[in-house]
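Consider one such protein record:
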Amino acid sequence: GVQLEESGGGSVQSGGSLRLSCTASGFTFDGSDMGWYRHTPGNVCEWVSIVSRDGSAHYTDSVKGRFTISRDNAKKTVTLQMNNLEPGDTAVYYCAASNIPDFMTGVQRLECDSGPNIFGGWGQGTQVTISS
């Protein structure tokens, strides 16, 4: 089955950097859009960044210029490099996968519990904590 395994979360001070990775298996990775969502207060996950199957990258406004998403189809991984982190970036970050073209870019907010049902793949999440 579809599996997404996140790694790289942790705790850093404001202004620091973290690198999240998501390793995929069980589906056609190079035919899927891949993205990162994060858990906001309540049961709401908001989109952070998406890299489409053609390699085009998309970012929510609050992370533009600070975060960089990339994918390695050979290794079936998607990476989120997060620089100049702010306390507002504190959240659980989830990796997501969708084999429906351009579907993920239309899902900016969702109930976190619905992630596995809405997307073909949804990870377990990794905690990112930024202290001021």
In short: The helical segments are 115-118.
